[in-house]
Fold this sequence. Notes:
Largest sheet: none
Amino acid sequence: MARPRNFNEAKALDAATAQFWRHGFGATSTRDLGAAMGLGPASLYNAFGDKRALFRRCLDRYLDGGMRARITRLERELPPRAAIEGFVDEILTLSRNDRRGCMMVNTTLESGPGDREIGDLVGARLQELEAFFLRCLMAGQRDGSIAANRNAADVARLLLAAIIGLRVLARVRPQAELLRGVACEALALLGPHPRDTRCT
Length: 200
């Protein structure tokens, strides 16, 4: 019979997530994680597995409370074009107000060809964002709010690249006017929108 855990799993995961977010996957040791989570090596391993397994849990926890929640809310509450615009607006706000950057984008920059497993993990999560953009683009082309002559798959990939670029740029040049200009150029890919005055 398994022994009950004598620690708060949610708080431990939050502490580990903060550690990975602050220092990156490669620079975070198991010892660092144990100290942040208040767990010894054996307890950490028994509860969460190795560092990679723990990072996977932390990244998904981060995305569940951020990108995935945002996508679900925007798709539920807004029409397709407005959902894309709302996502970009919220990323702009986050980028200006939080200099830590995006944990997923930070990991993208950190992971190299020598760590295919982490690269594949992050790549799969980025595909979730690309899929959101693609769904909205196709729906917007059907309702007439997004230019029908755009290749939806290509634009989805360009929007993904723009979001990654915004998050990176904001860490070194967080000027609001600069970031807004980049966002407006990305949204121009959707075609003209007569009611949108934010980028004029």
